[in-house]
Batch of 2 targets.
Target 1
Amino acid sequence: MARIKIKELLKSTAYGSEVTVKGWVRTKRENKAVAFIALNDGSIITNIQIVVDVPSFDEDTIKLVTTGACIAVTGTLIQSQGKGQTVEIQAKNINILGVSDPEKYPLQPKEHSLEFLREIAHLRMRTNTFSAIMRMRHAMAFAVHKFFNDRGFVYLHTPIITGSDAEGAGEMFRVTTLDPIKPPLTEDGKVDYKQDFFGRESNLTVSGQLEGELGATALGEIYTFGPTFRAENSNTTRHLAEFWMIEPEVAFNELEDNMQLAEDFLKYLVNYALEHCKEDLEFLDARFKKEEEKKPQAERAELGHLEKLQFVVGHPFEKVTYTDAIAILKDSKPFKKGQFKYPVDWGIDLQSEHERFLVEKHFKKPVILTDYPKQIKAFYMKQSEDGKTVRAMDVLFPGIGEIIGGSQREDVLDKLVSRAAEVGIDEKHLWWYLDTRRFGNCPHAGFGLGFERLMLFVTGMSNIRDVIPFPRTPQSAEF
Ligand code: 4AD
Ligand code: MG
C-alpha cells in the first residue's frame, strides 16, 4: 500500500479506510491488552497515535517497537477518542523496518539539553524542536526565492571559490591542492601559488556581493543565496564559520530604496512564517515561554515569541543615522552610569551592547542605522558629501543585533579606487569590478541578510548553532 504522510492523514476524515504510514517511534505505552505507539514521520510536528490490540499481534514484533525504531503500519483510520488528536490508526499489520536498541539510542523520551543535542547533531532532527526548526528553515528559504521571484529578480549563482579577498569582510579559508608539508616555493622562499590548482591564491568566498554587482549592472535586479565562509575566531552565539547569506543588488537604487527593500523583505519573511508555519511556530512559542520562565523576572522578554513576530510585521522600522545614535547612547542611563563595557564615541564600531540598547531599550523596535563613518565600513560604500560618512545601513533586530548589512555603492570611479588603495586593496585584483564603473556605470545598492540570524529571530532560539543542521564553528566540524 502506498504510504501516506502523517501531515495529510491528520487532515483526513476518511474514517474506516485502510492506510499505511511509515515513521520513527517516539514512544510506546502498553499493557497486556493494548499498546499505544506515537509515530512521527517528520512531515509535521504532531505524532499519529497507533492503537495495537496486543493479543492479536506477534509478541516479538511488539517488543521491537521501541523509541527510535523505524516501522511501517497498515491499519484502519479511526476517529480519535483521546484528547489532542483527531484521528488515529487501529493497526492491522506492523512491519519493523529498522530496529533501535533502546539501551543505546541517545534520544530518550524526555527533555535533552541543547548542548547535549549539539553533540548528537546527526540525530537531533528527530526531536520536536529540531524538526520544527528545519521545516521552518525550508519554508524561509522558499519564501526568500518567492519574494524575489515575484518581484522579477534574477537568482545569480556567484562563485564559492574566489581569487581575492576584495571585500575585506574577514579572515578567509584557503583553497589549495598543494602538498601541505612540502609546498613548492618561489626563489625567495614563499609558497609558489602559481603551481597551485588555480595558478593563484584562492579562498572560500566571504560574500557574493562584488560578483552580484556585475549581475545587477546587466540584469537590473539580482539576488544571491549561498554558503558564505568566514574564518574569524569569534565563538559567539551569533557567528558561524559557514553560514548562508542572501544578497540582493539593485541597479538604480539609492540608500532610501535599499532601506525600503530590506524592510519589505524582512516583513515578508516573518509574515510568511506566521502564515505557513503555524504548528511549528506554536510549538516554538510554547518552548520559548518555558525557557523564559527559567529566567529571573527582570531578564524575561516583554513579548512572547509570536507576539514579537507580529510586532515586527505591524510596525515601521526606526530609521536613525549613526551620528544620532551616538548622541542617544551618550545621553543614555547606562552610559552615564558607566554600565557599557565599551566606549561610545563618534567613529567607533558599535558593540552589541550598544546595538541592543538602541533596539531593545530605547526604540523597542527594529532599527535601521545609516550613514556610518567611512573608516569603519567597506571600501565600496558610497561616500557622502560631508567627506566623513558613507551611505551604509545596518538593520538591527531585537535579541539578534545586526541582521542585515548593506549600502549604496560608490559609483565614482576615482573615489572607489582611492578608497580601495587606502585600505590596502590592490587595484589590479579588482580590474573586473572596476569595469562596472568604467562601462555603463549607474547608481546601485544592495545588502546581505544572514540567513541563520533570520532563523534565530523566527524560531526564537538563542544560539546560532541550533538553527543550521550541522554548524561549523572554531574547533568543530563533526558530521
Ligand atoms: O555585514 P556583512 O559582512 O555584509 C556583507 O557581507 C556585504 N557584502 C553584504 C552586501 O552588502 N551585499 O554581512 C551581512 C550579514 C550580517 O548582517 C549578518 O546577518 C550575517 O551576514 N553574518 C553572519 N552570520 C553568521 N555568522 C557570521 N560569521 C556572519 N557574518 C555576517
Ligand atoms: Mg556588517
Target 2
Amino acid sequence: MTGELSPIDTAKFVAAKRAVEFVEDGMRIGMGTGSTAAWMVKCLGELVRDEGLKITGVPTSTRTAELARQVGIKVVSLDEARWLDLTIDGTDEFDADLCLIKGGGGALLQEKIVATASDQMIVIADPSKQVEHLGAFPLPVEVIPFGWQTTKALIEEMLVSMDVLGQSATLRMNGDAAFVTDEGNHIVDLHLTRIGNPRQMSLVLNQVPGVVENGLFIDICDVVVTGYADGRVEVLDINEGTLEEDQINFADAENMFADI
Ligand code: 5RP
C-alpha cells in the first residue's frame, strides 16, 4: 500500500464518506453495486466496527453481499426487510433532474427494486457521471434468455420511432459467453448517444415482451453526493432544492481499508 489513493478513488471515497453521514442507528439500508458503492459499504463497515452503528443491510448483488459480510454488516434479503429507510448506490450517469442511467455493473434489476422500496435514495458519484443529457453511456436493458434475439430485434424496431441519436443494440458479453445477471438474465446495451425523453423511453422499453427492466431511474433518486479528488463534496437535494458543499478528510483512507 502506498498510502495514497488515485484521484478517482479519492473522489469516490469522499462521496461515500459524506453519504454515510445520512445513516442513523437502527436503519435498514439498501446497498448498491459497483466500485463507488463498494467504498460506501467499506465506510458503513467502519462505522459498525468503530462506532457500534447498528444497521441492517440489503445488498443489490452477490458481490455487494460478500463485501458487506466481510466488513461486518448484518445482511438480510429485501423480503426480510420489506421496506428500507435509505439506499445508497453509484450511477453511470445523472442529469440535472437526478434521472439516472444505471446497470453498467449488471445489477440494475435488484438496484431498481431496492431503491424503489426505500424512503430515500442517495447516489454517490465522481464528477464524470454528471451529464447534460442522458445516453452517452450505453443504456442497459435486462432481458430474459428465452427468445432474447427476438426481444433485441423488437427493441431495435422500437428505437426507430424514439427521440435518440443512436439506435444500435448489443448483447453484453462475458468473454465468449453472454453475460448473466444475478437473476439469470442477459443484458442488451443500447447505444443511444442522447436520450431526448428518458421518461418515455423507460415506459416504452418496459412494454417490450422479454424485457424485465431497464437502467433508467426516473423520479427515484433524491440526493446526489458528488466527490472531488481534492476532498470536496457537493450534496444536491432535488426535493429541498439545495446544493451544499463540504470538505472530507481522506488522508487515512487507504490505510483504513488496507486489510479489506
Ligand atoms: C451497477 C451500477 C453501478 O452503480 C454503476 O455501474 C456505477 O459503477 P461505478 O461506481 O463502478 O462507476 O449501476 O449495476
